TrEMBL record, chains A, B:
Active site as annotated: E262 (proton donor/acceptor)
Species of the source: Photobacterium aquimaris
Family: Belongs to the peptidase M32 family.
Residues passing through the membrane, by range: none
Family matches, as SUPFAM superfamilies: Metalloproteases ('zincins'), catalytic domain (SSF55486)
Name of the featured protein: Metal-dependent carboxypeptidase
Length: 494, 494
């Protein structure tokens, strides 16, 4: 077991450097004064070089060969597989391609921050083209190494085991009912009267409310904290999870729902198996499963009618107000309002999948070489019109230039969002069969629900494939029917 | 210049890893929840290993040989000297000694935390003996390499260029007038009426006051911040200085004076020469010079009569109170109260040197082998009685077990505190000759005073020896007469 142990030790070393990177990255976003930026990025770049050297060290190939011949327990073999996958992912690309991608990505992303505001598609296009070219090269190399198609080889980075064949089938199904559902919900909600919030909401009170909500959802404050950053995220390490939010005095719901979302991510991290700490097999299974945990908290729980009854008194107490707009029923109306819009990150639960499917279809064809960068705005406009009934013609800012993902070449990530929503619905359907969720939520006793997630999801880390994980937890692999049923029930039957 | 550049690059790499260590160390003390401790220390230990490997790499000896033969500018030669000193300091000790010291130090310090509370000298002694033995070994090795005496070789770590011959002379002089001065001040202050503070002081208000004081003292908030930790310190990096304090609701002065003290350290760091960033030659000159900057702010400025007139309205505003205890005159009385006591960290400006001289004399003789660990309590008691007129017989908790320094083998550090006080007095005497300090402080215009420090101290980094630095700034090397004059004037003439 000598070489297995060496690899184990090596991975832990890398993970510990990742720990320092995570904390300094969190600090950069949440604590660091502006003047510290330059030296900080130099310091973090130095760490990245050291980590990269370690991750791509020559001797590792031999170590893996030796370790695979060793007498290992089944558990060790699973860990070794995860180690090998991580190593291959980090060694598959030639150094000069990685460097070109980093440069092209930085340049595209940096310019995008200005170009987006100026609706400058021509300028952006010029930077995006090399990024796409390099991503296609990356996809080819990964495809060759894995036997997957080019797009699937990128998808595999974020969703190991997922393929566009499966996504095509699932998303086709969603497309068969989603546009109609959106119209029905809009018609139904047209007669609803939603009371506007009486602003402002003091930041300190919102902060106290956020902490209350985190407590309710079982966030472990011995192993994490909440702070403020411009772009909310869940960072840190499993033993010390750092989530952030940003407060808007005119609307407490965005920060509150954001915190609840990040708390879902955080509980997954906090619940990962301790015996595999600092090893790939102990990490979160995939981006989609990660998102399923945040959306479980935000969508399945927090935006439900029953949960509004838990939140309403907390909110009234936090703001010391009994205004009618803060009633459970009005909160439910606010939290389930559906309206097709241009912006993905502002989208509601029902229209969100349309944004994702649109992006998936474009990036898939882009990587497979079926369309070119020049084609994007027209296709974007067509699909927006088809799925959501709104046109983005000439509006690049709120159209194909709205997301950061493509600017640095992160193709293959978008499907995770909707996969997460679907997994979350499927998990909740199973939990509903095993316990009286309505009763528990009504009592404010979420423990049994989270215990189910702890046992079936968090504790598994990456020891199972996503399909196996979901099958063992719910009795079947991903089935989008649960998501459909969830939306139908919440948005049409209520 | 190839090898000089290599060494320059190598040092910057080490410094950048030090940056990550500093931020994660700050986070550990100021932000991290308890549950993150284990993984954090593992991660930081990993970084320490990597840094140590880099700092002691085999190839460096050759690089230095090659670099010294290269055609360098005078400035580069100064930087190279500083690089070489740093390299030698990090490579002089055999790895097994460093490891033994680390183990013995950790064990002694860990047990001390309990033993001190229990007044358990016998238990502590058993752990301190190996620490002293190892420190003597370290001192011998350093003495052989530097040609210094054994104690001086340890002193040289913190105060390059300082020797016990100089300290003996200076401290003998201080001892010739200090005990009598203390008695005179006590007699004078016996008739003073100091109004007690009317507590409590709300933490948030103390925090706001701290930030106000930092602003007054020119702390650059673009390159630093203030937070809370159990043990206040000045950490971070020059471009992002992190100072901490802790608040006591029953007494705002401890946090306020603490913050002012740390602001002095911080301004030095923030003012270090940018062209030498990440290089040893760009670092603070010595511990004594560092302390001179904190004591300049705290002792020379903040505890002065005139400064009380600046602070008083700020304090009254912060706590929204015009209580007579917050008058400028009463604050001055509080801030200059002298009373011999057992505890160094609680000591006032006048009695503090006695605590330092006592420790210096003991650790000097301990390292030189003139006394043994068993002798410490008796000598401690004798010297406390002689210098401060109070006995610590049988009281180890408040006697020779009060400090953390010796537990992990940091012999040679204590003199820096009083050297700092002396340098601060000498700097202020010079500044007084060059500008009307009373007028400036009276106007609350501290800029010209800090500009002097920026030009003569901060901006020099480690480009000059301490003697040269002080001589160029003040016209002479360390002269304790200024400190004496300062104490006489403040504590007897007022
Ligand atoms: Zn998320
Ligand atoms: Zn200090």
């Amino acid at each position: 077991m000598c070489y297995y142990n060496k690899l184990d030790r090596h991975a832990k070393k890398l993970s510990r450097l990742g720990h320092l990177n995570a904390i300094c990255g969190w600090d950069q976003a949440a604590m660091m004064p502006n003047g510290g930026a330059q030296a900080r990025s130099e310091a973090m770049a130095e760490l990245a070089v050291i980590s990269h050297e370690l991750a791509t060290a020559d001797y590792l190939e031999d170590w893996f060969k030796q370790a695979e011949a060793e007498d290992l327990t089944p558990e060790q073999r699973v860990s070794l597989d995860a180690l090998k996958r991580q190593w291959m992912m980090q060694n598959i690309l030639p150094a000069d391609l990685v460097e070109q991608q980093s440069l092209a990505g930085s340049q595209c992303e940096h310019a995008w921050r200005t170009q987006r505001k100026q609706n400058d598609w021509e300028g952006f296009k010029a930077n995006l083209k090399p990024v796409v070219e390099l991503a296609r090269k990356e996809a080819s190399i990964r495809a060759q190494a894995t036997g997957l198609s080019r797009y699937d080889a990128l998808l595999d980075i974020y969703e190991p085991g997922m393929t566009s064949a499966v996504l095509d089938r699932i998303f086709a199904e969603v497309k068969s009912w989603l546009p109609q559902l959106i119209q029905q919900v809009e018609a139904k909600q047209a007669t609803e009267i939603v009371l506007p919030l009486s602003t402002p909401f003091v930041i300190e009170q919102q902060q106290a409310l956020s902490l209350e909500a985190m407590k309710l959802l079982g966030f472990d404050f011995e192993h994490g904290r909440l702070d403020i950053s411009t772009h909310p995220f869940c960072g840190g390490v499993p033993t010390d999870v750092r989530i952030t939010t940003r407060y808007d005095e005119s609307d407490f719901t965005s920060a509150l729902m954001g915190v609840i979302h990040e708390t879902g991510h955080a509980r997954y991290e906090q619940g990962l198996p301790q015996q595999w700490r600092d090893l790939p097999v102990g990490e979160a299974r995939s981006m989609g499963i990660h998102e399923s945990q945040s959306l479980f908290c935000e969508m399945q729980l927090a935006r439900s009618s029953l949960f509004s009854h838990l939140l309403s008194p907390m909110i009234q107490k936090a703001f010391n107000s009994t205004d009618a707009s803060l009633s459970a029923e009005n909160l439910r109306l606010i939290n389930t309002r559906v309206k097709p819009g241009f912006i993905r990150v502002d989208a509601d639960e029902v229209t969100y999948p349309a944004h994702v499917i649109l992006r998936y279809e474009i990036e898939r064809d882009l990587i497979e070489g079926k369309i070119e960068v020049d084609d994007i705005p027209t296709i974007w406009d067509q699909k927006m019109t088809q799925y959501l009934g709104i046109s983005t013609q000439g509006n690049f800012t709120d159209g194909c230039m709205q997301d950061i993902h493509w600017t640095d070449g992160s193709f293959g990530y978008f499907p995770s969002y909707t996969l997460g929503a679907m997994y979350a619905a499927q998990f909740m359907a199973t939990i509903n069969q095993q316990m009286d969720v309505e009763l528990l939520v009504g009592q404010g006793n979420l423990t049994p629900i989270f215990e189910w997630l702890q046992t079936h999801i968090w504790n598994k880390g990456s020891t199972l494939s996503t399909d196996k994980l979901v099958e063992q937890a719910t009795g079947e692999t991903l089935n989008p029917e649960y998501f459909k049923q969830h939306l139908m029930k919440r948005y049409l039957n209520n």
